Amino acid sequence: MPDDDTKAFRKAMTDVRPLPARKLPPAPPKPRAVARFSRGERVGTLREGPRDSAQLGSLADDDRVAFRRAGVRDDVLRKLRRGQFAVEAEIDLHGLDRHATHKALRDFIGTAIGRRLRCVRVIHGKGLRSGPGGPVLRHVVNDWLSRIENVLAFASARPVDGGTGAVYVLLSLPAAPRRPHRE
To answer: Alpha-carbon distance 121 to 32, whole Å?
Structure first.
């Protein structure tokens, strides 16, 4: 019986001709390779460097801090300490460990720069329950902020905004993307 099926199939196909061969359309071009971080640099990839300890100082015995990069004028730091810049975003780091704090802080600052925010507040807490070692997050946040090149200055917040448990951070704005010149 299988031979009968094969014979019937061949008989049915006697007048069939193969379709002419067609050229396939060319494959679409592959997207241009882009360096992994080039897009991120345009929207605020953070660069960290060594901290200049002479730039980070205590204002008084009450643990207030102030930091400014070279080139940032005294009056800008004074306005920052007085809370005269509008705080456009804030992050509360209470309850995070050192590693989680670093990641959260980097993500927050990177996003703020990408959104072109000028002044943000970082709440790290006063460390009242930190034990004999003192306030851990306060010190590491200040150290990390002083290493991020996009941080122009930071200072302890006014008492109404968290006092020594928070800092105002002044950020440098990235250069606006260049638009092609049309004539």
So the answer is: 39
Q: For residue 137, tell me if it sits in a domain.
A: yes
Using one digit for the tens of pLDDT, what is the confidence trace for 1-43?
578 899 999 899 888 888 888 887 888 777 766 554 444 444 4
Listed in sequence order, the residues at least 6 apart from 42 whose beta carbon sits closer than 8 Å to its beta carbon are 174, 177
Contacts of 38 (CB under 8 A, 6+ apart): none
Contact criterion met (CB below 8 Å) for 127 and 138: yes
User: pTM of this prediction?
Assistant: 0.65
Query: Structural domain of residue 122, as residue ranges?
Result: 67-171
Are 42 and 115 in contact, with CB atoms under 8 Å apart?
A: no
Question: Does residue 159 fall inside a structural domain?
Answer: yes
Is residue 164 domain-resident? Answer: yes
What is the number of domains present in the chain?
A: 1
